[in-house]
Specification:
Layout (H helix, E strand, L loop, with lengths): L1 E9 L1 H4 L2 H10 L7 E4 L9 E4 L6 H4 L3 E7 L2 H17 L1
Parallel strand pairs: 1-4
Antiparallel strand pairs: 2-3, 2-4
């Protein structure tokens, strides 16, 4: 199950398709070239960057996934990760 963080961030390119991306993620449908910043599989890490198509595998289907940022490329999500870390540091 996919859930979204209250302060969910989108890259400029992903923001243009916000509704489409959210509905497809919630319904488990295929998305091409969409990258996500999520909680890590290993609790020793801070975050994990994965491609949305991985959510179709049974490993991810059986987990609760919390999404913090969405981008159209891995580089965009890395940039958003810096914003998430800055926000987290200020709390």
């Amino acid at each position: 199950m996919v859930s979204f963080d209250e302060g969910l961030l989108y890259s400029e390119k992903a923001l243009k398709q916000k509704k489409r991306i959210e509905s497809r993620l919630m319904n488990g449908k295929k998305l091409k070239n969409v990258w996500l910043l999520t909680d890590p599989a290993n609790p020793r890490n801070l975050y994990e960057i994965i491609e949305s198509k991985l959510l179709r595998f049974s490993y991810y289907k059986n987990k609760d996934i919390r999404v913090y940022a969405v981008g159209k490329s891995r580089d965009e999500v890395v940039t958003l990760l810096l914003s998430v870390l800055e926000k987290r540091e200020s709390l």
